[in-house]
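Record now logged underneath.
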Amino acid sequence: MIQTYRPQWKGDFERLNRAWIEKLFVMEPQDYQLFNDPENEVIQGDGMIFFILEEGSPVATAGVKPYGEHGFELVKMAVDEKARGKGYARQLCMHAIDFAKQKGKEFIVLYTHSSLTPALALYKSLGFENVEVENGKYARADVKMQLNIWKVTKNP
């Protein structure tokens, strides 16, 4: 069952994400800013951070933060290495889409890297499409994808 953010999970949100960021890339200034204050950087406004727990401890997370007036940005999705292969990333994405619908949003964007092929395959299977990525948003992002939420008719 997916849980919403609780202050005691702030460290888990950072831990889960730093694991993949530091393994594959480098931390960027906006990463530090977001991890230091997820309540204001993600949740303030309509945003939310979601978690999946195993035995009471967070093993997967993703957030949605406001992106303009009509959208969300899917941010900081991470699954603990020991919990991979259980469909948690798909569950979190589907939950984010449902959450965006409930909030009346029109679209979700995300930024990723072309080397993250499993993530790209997941996003495409959910209906995300490549759009032009603007320079300077994130140093490690060379791919931007967008999903028009109201066109989602399948439940993959």
